[in-house]
C-alpha cells in the first residue's frame, strides 16, 4: 500500500492534469518524478517586471518552478519564479504563499493563487518581500490589476485531500489579498457567517473580532468548513449558502 505522501502526490498530479490540460491561462510545462515532485508552470497572464534600464514593463508570459519537499504536504511547496516578477510578494528566491499553509490545499489551488498574484488580483503590501514593488502598488492602485483574466478553470470541483489524513485545519490563510477583495468580519466564537449565494466571491478578508487579526481566505473553499485565528486560536465557520 502506498504512503499518504505518495497518494497525495498522485492526487495532485491528477487534479493538475484535469484543471489545466485544456486551460490557456495556465499550462504544465514540466513534471518530474513518479509521481511528480517537481513542476514548472507557464502562466499566459499579464504581469510586471523591471527591464535593465529600470523601467516597469508588462510581460505576457511567466514561468513558475515548484518543488515538493520530503515534508510535503505538511510543509509548504517551495515556489520560485523563473521569469522575474515585479510584485510585493515575490523576490528572486521565492514566492510568498502566505504565513500559513494547510495540507488540505490542493497544488492546483496554489497555482491558481500564484497566477492571481502575478496579475495583481491579489497582493499584500503590509509585509512585502519586495519593498519597492509594495510602494509602487500602493501609489498605483488605479492601475491594478494588470490583468483581469480568470485564472481558475471553470470546473474547480475536484477531489482534494481529506482532513482526516492531513489534520484538522481545512483552510489556507493567505496574506496576499487584493484591494478589491470583499471584506467581512467574523464574531469571536464559534460563529457562522452567511453570504448571499448571488454574490460571486473568489476571495475575502476576515477579521477576528476577538483580537482583530486579519486573514485572507479563498472563498471557494469556505462553505461549511472551519478555520482558526492564528493569533488567538478562536474557531470560526463561514458558509456561502
Structure explained in plain terms:
This protein is an alpha+beta fold. The chain has two domains: 4-143, Ubiquitin Conjugating Enzyme, CATH 3.10.110.10; 181-239, no CATH class. It has helices at 4-20, 107-118, 131-139, 163-166; strands spanning 26-33, 36-43, 47-50, 56-59, 62-67, 78-81, 182-186, 192-194, 203-208, 214-218, 225-228, 235-239. The protein is globular.
Summarize the structure.
By secondary structure, this protein is of the alpha+beta class. The protein is built from 4 helices and 12 strands. The protein is globular.
**Corresponding CATH architecture of the largest domain:** Roll
Number of helices: 4
Helical coverage, percent range = 10-25%
| Succession of helices and strands | HEEEEEEHHHEEEEEE
Strand order of the largest sheet: 1-2-5-6
* Global shape: globular
Major beta-sheet overview? 4 strands, antiparallel
Return Rg in Å. 18 Å
Structural class: alpha+beta
Give the beta-strand count.
12
Terminal Cα separation, in Å? Answer: 39 Å
Give the tally of structural domains.
2
CATH class of the largest domain, anyone?
Alpha Beta
How is the quaternary structure best described?
Answer: single chain
CATH topology of the largest domain: Ubiquitin Conjugating Enzyme
CATH superfamily name of the largest domain? Answer: Ubiquitin Conjugating Enzyme
